[in-house]
Amino acid sequence: MLKVGIISDTHLGFAWGEERQEDSFRNLEQAFDEIIRHEADIVLLAGDIFHDRIPRQEILARAIELFSKCSAKFKSRPFCIKAVKDKQAHEVRQFTSPLIAIWGTHERRHVGATNPMHILEKAGLVTLLHAESVLLEINSDKLGIHGLSGIPEPQVRQALQTWEPEPFEDSFNIMMLHQNFKEIMPPVDHALEFSDLPAGFDLFVLGHVHNTQIKKHPLSKTPILVVGSTVSTQSQKIEAEIRKGAYIAEISRQSCELKFLPIKTRQLFYERVTVANQKPAEISMKIRDMIVKYANQSYDLKPIVRIKIDGVLAQNFSPADLDVAGLAREHVDRIILSIDKSNLVSEQLEQQSKLLAELKAKKLSIDQMGLEILQRYLKDKADIKKLETIFHLLADNELEKAEEAL
C-alpha cells in the first residue's frame, strides 16, 4: 500500500510583521508532522505554499529550514524512473525529493522569472512540476504524479489542452492543479469545469480553494480532492466552520481511501450583525457584548473574532460614526478583532441606491435619468419643461444660460 500526504495553500509569510506571523509556519509544521506520523511515502503540495511572489529573506530562510526538517524525517526517497515534459518522455532512474509540488497563483511570476518554489527546487527540497509528469517507484509500487502549476485564468483551458497529459500504464495516477473551478468557486470568468479534467486518472488534487471538500468527476466519477488551506487568510464564515488540516491517501491496486488529518489552529469566530435603522451607539453596545463573550474565555492562542455588519443606519448617521477602532482597542490583549462595516450604509445613501436601481430598471436614457433625478430633488417639481431646459444647458456646459433659466 502507498501512502501519499497532501497539503495545499499554506501561505508561508502571511501576516508577517503582525501578531499572526507565526501561524502559517506553525500550521505547516503540524501538517508535516501528522503526515510523517501516518508513515507517508511522499507529500504532494498543491500550490500557494508562499503568500507572496517575492517573500522576505526571513520567510525564505524559515521555509528552507522547515522543508529540510521534514525531508530528513522520511526513511527513504522515491525513485524516479521516468519524466515527461513537452510530450517527450525521458528515462531518469534517480532518487528524488519526497516532496512533490506545484506553484499557485500567489507564487506565480512572469515567464523566465524565479519564484520562491523554484528556490526550494534549486535547494533540492522539492520536485517542482509545471505541465510535467513523473513516474515514481516506491516499495515496488508505481505512482504517476502529473502537475500543472497556476496559470492565468484566460489561458488555463488552452494550457490544459496543450499539455494533454497521459496517465502512466500499470500505475496509480494523480493529477494536481491550482485553478478556479466553477463547481467550487463563486462565478469567475474563464474558470475550468470538472468536465475539463482528462480521463484515465485515479485522483485529482486541487489547490486554491481554502475550504476542504471531496467531489467526483461528472463522467468518470474519479475522486476530486479539494485540499483546503492550513491557515485562515480571509476570515470568512466557512473558514470558521470547517477545520484546517492535511490529507493522507492510502492507495492500493483496488482503491484509494482519503483521510483528513486535522491540525490545531488559532480559533476563528464569525459573527454577523444586521442593522435596521439603528444608531451607532446601539450597534456599538451589541458588538461590545459579542466581544466580551469571546474575550472572557480561555484559549491556547489568542482567537480571531470577525464581525461583519450590514444594513441601514438610523437617519442622519453615517458609517463613519461607528467607531470600530475604539471597540478593537478595548480587548486587544485577549482577542484579535476584525470588524467589517463595508456593507453598512446611511439611510440617505440607501435611498439614493434604491432610486438609481429603480431608474435603471426603467431602462431610461442618461438624459431621462438626469431629468427624473432633478425633478425628485429640486423643490420646483411642477415645471418639467423648465427643468429640461436647465438640464440640457448644464449638459452643454452653458452655465450662464442655465443660471438665467433658474
Task: Give a concise summary.
Helices cover 30% and strands 28% of the residues.
Characterise the protein shown here.
By secondary structure, the chain is an alpha/beta fold. It folds into three domains: 2-262, 4-Layer Sandwich (Purple Acid Phosphatase, chain A, domain 2), CATH 3.60.21.10; 268-347, no CATH class; 364-405, no CATH class. It contains eleven helices and 17 strands. Helix 4 links the parallel strand 8 (141-148) and strand 9 (172-178). It is globular, with a radius of gyration of 28 Å. The model has no long low-confidence stretch (mean pLDDT 88).
SSE layout and pairings?
Layout: E1 2-7, H1 23-37, E2 42-46, H2 57-72, E3 79-85, E4 88-95, E5 99-102, H3 116-122, E6 127-128, E7 132-138, E8 141-148, H4 153-163, E9 172-178, E10 203-207, E11 213-216, E12 223-226, H5 237-241, E13 245-251, E14 256-262, E15 268-278, H6 280-295, E16 304-313, H7 324-330, E17 336-345, H8 347-361, H9 366-377, H10 384-395, H11 399-405
Parallel strand pairs: 1-2, 2-5, 5-6, 8-9, 9-10, 10-12, 15-16, 16-17
Antiparallel strand pairs: 1-13, 3-4, 3-7, 7-8, 11-12, 13-14
Helix pairs in contact: 1-2, 9-10, 10-11
